[in-house]
Amino acid sequence: MNKISLIIKREYLTRVRKKSFIIMTILGPILIAAMIILPAMLSEWSESEEKSVAVLDETGIFFEKFKDQESIKFYHVFEGINDEKENALYNKGDLLLYIPKTELNLPVNAQLFSVKQPGLNVTAYIKSVMKTTIENEKLKAQGIDPEVIKSAKANINLNTIRVEEDGAEKKSYTEVEVALAIFAGIMIYFFIFMFGAQVLKGVMEEKSNRIVEVIISSVKPFQLMMGKIIGIAMVGLTQFLLWIVLTGFFLVIFQLGFGGDISAGMQSMNGQNQVITENAASGISSDKMAMITEIIGSINLSAMILSFIFYFLGGYLLYSSLFAAIGGAVDHDSDTQQFMLPVSIPLIFSVMMSGVVVNQPDSTLSIWLSMIPFTSPVIMMMRIPFGVPYWELFASGGLLIVGFIFTTWLAGKIYRTGILMYGQKVTYAILWKWLRQKS
Fold first, then answer.
1. Which of 50, 79, 208, 378 is deepest in the core (most CB within 10 A)?
2. Rounded (5°) CA angle 114-120-124
3. Residues 313 and 356 in one domain
4. For residue 34, is it within any domain?
5. What digits encode the pLDDT tens for the residues 268-281?
6. Cα-trace Rg, the chain
7. Number of structural domains the chain divides into
8. Is the pLDDT of residue 8 over 50?
9. Using CA atoms, how far apart are residues 413 and 47, in angstroms rounded to an integer?
10. Same structural domain for residues 261 and 359?
11. Residue 125 and residue 200 in one domain
12. Residue 166, CB half-sphere, CA atoms under 13 Å: how many?
């Protein structure tokens, strides 16, 4: 055990001292914070660019129907299409909406001329106004008052109430849960592959440099494999925790330095009265803040974080043991492809099934996929935001531990023989022969 701890310490310290680790530990949170901050900033910047649309309506039906929006201004023109196109597009740099006159039918066709791409918000608003106007004209033609139809419309608010095993009722937000489920599943997939590949690369480097021959003279191959796997797992866990802390730090710095509203939702956990007071000054109503608080309260963040750490470690240990076996068996990167694909298929399949899982998290298929050790790290993390019975969590976690022990034993048999084999073309038949060898 002492030898394994020495290998773990060596792997951990060697990797955390690398420039690449330090750079990615700092750069990762910056990129994550940028993905949160930049869309909001760019959205505000793009919305501030005002567009003007000249409306040439030969029918007269849409006169003053197009109302000015926050970033779109409308004005009517009355000359010929060619003159107005020249004036609006090239002289003023505006857009031109041309609605030609029809003899028999109501106008349902229009043309929007622009030098640059008009933007989805412009086209969507124009189509919405035209659709509403034409529908109203058709209703009037049938002798029906459009206001009667409008007053008959209703908005339905469907609140989802989850009933816990103890009978407690808790409001849930399906959209938030779906987004959180997909994010958690993809992050598990990303971390397992990233750090599992590091194990593969590290084993191959030591084997190709013949360093492993010196190390094996002092420790057993299984001890070396376990030390390397656990050491890199600790590196991954350290980097993950640092990413969480630094991402929050950068978001707070942005909040204080630029006066953004990024932390509005986070502040709700520090006291309702303080939140409402601070955000009222920023133009955020107490109703919206109450909804944000309720959404955050509906998510068991502590359970999500603890589950993420457990399934990351369990999934990583399971797959990295197989990656270590592949790295110990082959001599060149080109030889890894034939073995990497079969090992990676369950993990890739888990991500491909994300749509099915988030739509039916309690289906028989989702439950079974969350129990199978090769797919449970991703699938179970996708199910947890929707609420999972404790017995399923314990069963899934227990099977994952058993799966890790089995794959480690399996990988150890391949690693023990393959790590000292050089120049031999490894095939599945040879791997099967190594597996059948008695210790």
1. 378
2. 100
3. yes
4. no
5. 334 434 433 344 34
6. 30
7. 2
8. yes
9. 61
10. yes
11. no
12. 3
